[in-house]
Design a protein that fits this description.
Elements (H helix, E strand, L loop, with lengths): L2 E7 L12 E7 L7 E10 L3 H5 L20 E8 L9 E4 L6 E5 L4 E2 L16 H13 L7 E4 L5 H12 L4 E6 L2 H9 L4 E4 L5 H6 L4 E6 L3 H9 L1 E9 L19 H5 L3 E4 L9 H13 L7 E5 L4 H9 L6 E5 L3
Parallel strand pairs: 8-9, 8-11, 9-10, 11-12, 12-13, 14-15
Antiparallel strand pairs: 1-2, 3-4, 3-6, 3-15, 4-5, 5-7
The structure holds NADP nicotinamide-adenine-dinucleotide phosphate.
């Protein structure tokens, strides 16, 4: 019997996930039925939203089931096909990550062009995180030429794209916050005008000399959101992309204490989920693809090696172990 491995959710985390919440399971390698393809995954994505799916709560996406494989973005090579549309050797993007092989209907596998960018880019800069940055700036924050933009989580997959895209889209000044001196140095290298380590002091204090801020792209929530609200310009716009500082909290954390400023400064604060904005996909690829190709936008990836490291990579993402997109390499 030929086998393959996948990672299951063994129990629901309370607070920070621990390795015991996950189980690696060996299963028989399936064969594709009519219209299906078998994919050998070469890279799987670990993303912060997966933490929310581990909770048994109603949200914009269903929770992961217990004792079943986790899912998420992955790219790989088609190794068997009973499809007329996808052939053996194609590189595809799909949503059955956290496993070495994926059996898919061909409609769930998108063939990607590895001449334009390496397969892993479709999980990062040219994939969901890049598109999140683009949607957040263009559709939610309605970035205008000359804006001062502040991005938190700026050295991560979404944040590093948000800051660089803001610059390309006409921002006059781009400010970023991140969790280490090395990340701050990288942000300055890739074109942020100012970057600071949020461990060096309260965000409210560190942001003071760089504001007022027209657009805040919020990946972090909590103290970052409170600090940004204080330094927003009149009529500023805040795109609430995520609140990673609270994802592993056991109790809800207190909200910003300065919400009255929303009224006095006439702010717009709007949350969004990238999957609601499929209409932006074509524009995103047409706009951002060439910027990546000509080097106007640079990216980094942080790789973990092998399925056995996937859980650790997911935990490390929440500890700030990544610069740019966090990925797990499976085979080559
Ligand atoms: N709305 C949507 O549709 C959508 C789509 C994708 C992602 N998101 C959200 O976007 C955000 C970034 O996602 P991503 O995939 O790009 O992840 P990422 O930024 O690549 O990785 C997560 C980063 O969060 C930072 N972090 C962790 N705890 C923190 C804390 N307490 N305070 C400040 N920073 C902290 C860490 O960097 P440091 O070293 O800087 O702490 C870590 O590297 C997340 O909030 C995610 O949920 C939203």
């Amino acid at each position: 019997m030929t086998t393959t491995r996948e990672i299951h959710l063994a129990s629901r985390p309370s607070g920070w996930p621990v390795p015991a919440n996950f189980r690696t399971v060996t299963v028989e390698l399936p064969e594709p039925g009519p219209g299906q393809v078998l994919v050998r995954n070469t890279a799987i994505s670990v993303d912060p939203y997966m933490r929310g799916r581990m909770n048994d709560v109603t949200s914009y996406v269903a929770p992961f089931a217990l004792d079943a494989p986790l899912g998420g973005g992955a790219v790989g090579e088609v190794v068997a096909s009973s499809s007329d549309n996808v052939t053996v050797g194609d590189t595809v993007l799909h949503q059955l990550g956290w496993r070495e092989h994926a059996l898919l209907d061909d409609s769930a596998a998108r063939v990607v062009d590895t001449d334009i960018a390496p397969a892993s880019a479709y999980l990062g800069a040219l994939g969901m995180p890049g598109m999140t940055a683009y949607v957040g700036l263009t559709r939610i924050a309605q970035l205008k030429e000359g804006d001062t933009v502040f991005v938190s989580g700026a050295a991560g997959a979404v944040g590093s794209m948000a800051g660089q895209l803001a610059r390309q889209l006409g921002a006059a000044k781009v400010i970023g916050s991140a969790g280490s001196r090395e990340k701050v140095a990288w942000l300055e290298e890739i074109g942020f005008d100012v970057a600071f380590d949020y461990h060096d002091g309260p965000v409210r204090r560190q942001l003071k000399e760089h504001g007022p801020v027209d657009v805040y792209f919020d990946n972090v929530g909590g103290e970052h959101l409170e600090g940004a609200i204080t330094h927003m310009a009149d009529f500023g716009r805040i795109a609430c992309c995520g609140a990673i500082s609270s994802y592993n909290d056991e109790q809800p954390s207190p909200g910003p204490r300065n919400l009255a400023i929303i009224t006095s400064k006439r702010l717009t604060i709007r949350g969004f989920i990238v999957s609601d904005h499929g209409e932006a996909a074509g524009e995103f690829y047409r706009t951002v693809g060439p910027w990546l190709a000509d080097g106007r936008i640079t990216t980094r990836e942080t790789w973990a090696e092998g399925l056995d490291q996937a859980v650790e990579a997911f935990l490390d993402l929440h500890r700030g172990g990544n610069t740019g997109k966090m990925l797990v390499r499976l085979g080559s």
